[in-house]
Write a structure and sequence with these properties.
By secondary structure, the protein is α+β, with helices and mostly antiparallel strands. The protein is 60% helix and 12% strand. The relative contact order is 0.09. It contains 18 helices and eleven strands. The radius of gyration is 25 Å and the shape is globular. The protein folds into three domains: 72 residues, no CATH class; 105 residues, OB fold (Dihydrolipoamide Acetyltransferase, E2P); 279 residues, no CATH class.
Length: 502
């Protein structure tokens, strides 16, 4: 079975199945495990499949156990303190956010003092802390704070925060600031991102929607995007531009590989230059917030770099499985994250449907110029990604953007030009005069992008409203559709290979 040449793909499939089993009653999960094991036995002895047939039930069992441990660990020691007045000492996990009525802080509590028990408790966990103290808005991540609040349940977005192991909230009149927690290593990266954002604010011609889109495109910072602009990108089918993913990681790879071409060939493949690129890629993934889509692209890009170092072929299916395996093993709850599902569905759709669509566009042999070939590639990639994410869009949003192809043909070239120009701005913005001058072309491209997307999203008949689809059916339908497309592609390539041999 040729598919078994991709061990990480099947290992990832097994661990994802195991994590999903943790949501079922134990007897149903056990029944599924028995079925998987029985299928592996049949494939091993009767069909003669290779030893990798055992990877699915094996990693399904490991994923089930991993999710069970995670569920046990996700009940923080703070829960018994619900309803009590406590003194909390901890540090900020992310920068404060402004809500309609107060400022929201996500903190990791190091210690809690119970006023009812009159003693400190060794309780730890995450708390959403609300306050009207405006001095907290500029606090960087990793900053230590103390506050007195009454712990309560989370009222808004409870399911979302539960996935991040946050179950309690509180309101504090005042926030006491302490020293930065030096052990919180992600805080250093978040503070660096905040420094870059502050510098972009100070050198940009204006601080409107174009600047917010530039921050999202370059640094994955989407808090400044207002609801109207965000909805315009969703309605036009270009919301993927605002999520750091393969396009953004490809930008980093392209820039560095362009510089390597200026070096002798021996240095182009040298472990030192490739190792630096690998570190740069991982650092960029964390700098942009470490979202599931960003880390998926970083992991796949890292595999491509390692394959280049070893001068070995890059197997995209194996790289996709490797990324999924590591992400799910590190955090089993990531499979329920929309960004994770859309990212892998889009990549799976591109792998399954891009080549058939591209071959269809090239069915009539003709001489093509570079620009025409680029737009045909863009059409094929956009259609393939939309086919991969169709059922997810249906289940989560209930609508389908009809102008997505036109929108992507306009938005992706603009976003690509904006990204390259913004990198130049980042390099020059600390030079007093050049920094301000370099901001104008960036702002102009961002303005064009926002205006184009807003115009297309406002056209009549831009979206097709679909009947409700249960969310639990979205991923099975998505996998089934991608599997059908992949099977057809495999048979087509095998037929082409046979024809060449004959």
């Amino acid at each position: 079975m040729p598919a078994w040449r991709y061990p990480f793909l099947w290992g990832a499939a097994g661990i994802v199945i195991g994590v999903a089993l943790a949501e079922l009653p134990w007897y149903l999960a056990l029944g599924v495990m028995v079925g998987l094991t029985g299928g592996a036995v049949y494939a091993w002895f009767k069909l003669g499949w290779g030893r990798l047939v055992w990877s699915v039930p094996l990693f399904a069992g490991l994923g089930w156990g991993r999710a069970w441990i995670e569920n046990k660990a996700s009940s923080p020691n703070l829960r018994p303190l619900m309803g009590q007045l406590v003194g909390v000492a901890g540090y900020l996990i992310e920068e404060p956010a402004r809500t309609s009525r107060a400022y929201r802080l996500l903190i990791e509590a190091d210690s809690v003092y119970s006023y009812r028990l009159h003693r400190a408790l060794p309780a730890t966990g995450c708390i959403l802390l609300y306050t009207r103290d405006s001095s907290v808005i500029h606090l960087p991540a990793g900053y230590g704070i103390r506050a007195v609040c009454r712990l309560d349940s989370i009222r808004f977005g409870q399911a979302y925060w539960a996935r991040q192991k946050v179950f309690l909230s509180g309101y504090a009149e005042q926030i006491e600031k302490t020293e930065i927690n030096t052990g919180y290593w992600q805080g250093y990266i978040q503070r660096l991102r905040q420094l870059l954002i502050n510098k972009m604010d100070s050198t940009a011609p204006a601080t409107h929607a174009p600047l917010a889109v530039t921050k999202a495109l370059l640094l994955g910072y989407k808090r400044g995007i207002d609801s109207e602009v965000r909805e315009a990108f969703q309605l036009s089918g270009t919301a993927h531009i605002l999520a750091v993913s393969g396009m953004h990681v490809g930008l980093v790879l392209s820039l560095w590989l362009f510089l390597l071409r200026k070096l002798p060939p021996a240095w182009s493949y040298h472990w030192l230059s490739q190792g630096f690129l690998l570190v740069l890629l991982v650092f960029y993934g964390f700098l942009t917030g470490g979202s599931p889509s960003a880390m998926r692209a970083v992991l796949m890009g890292s595999v491509a770099i390692l394959a280049r170092m070893q001068r070995q072929p890059y197997l995209s299916l194996n790289a996709l499985g490797f990324a999924a395996f590591l992400q799910v093993a590190a955090d089993p709850t990531v499979i329920y994250h929309w960004g994770f599902q859309f990212s892998y569905a889009a990549v799976g759709g591109i792998m399954a449907f891009y080549l058939p669509i591209r071959l269809y566009l090239l069915r009539y042999p003709q001489r093509e110029n570079t620009l025409l070939a680029y737009f045909k590639d863009l059409i094929a990639i956009s259609m393939a990604a939309q086919m991969g994410t169709f059922f997810l869009n249906w289940a989560y949003f209930g609508r389908f953007p009809l102008y997505f192809l036109l929108a992507n043909l306009i938005a992706i070239p603009l976003a690509t030009a904006l990204a390259f120009t913004a990198v130049g701005w980042l390099i020059l913005m600390y030079i007093p005069i050049l920094g301000k001058l370099a901001a104008y072309p960036v702002y102009a491209l961002a303005w064009l992008l926002v205006e184009a997307v807003s115009f297309l999203s406002a056209l009549p008949g831009g979206t097709l409203t679909l009947p409700p689809l249960p969310s639990y059916m979205a991923m099975p339908f998505t996998l089934f559709g991608i599997g059908i497309g992949g099977s057809w592609l495999h048979r087509h390539l095998q037929a082409q290979k046979t024809m060449w041999i004959v």
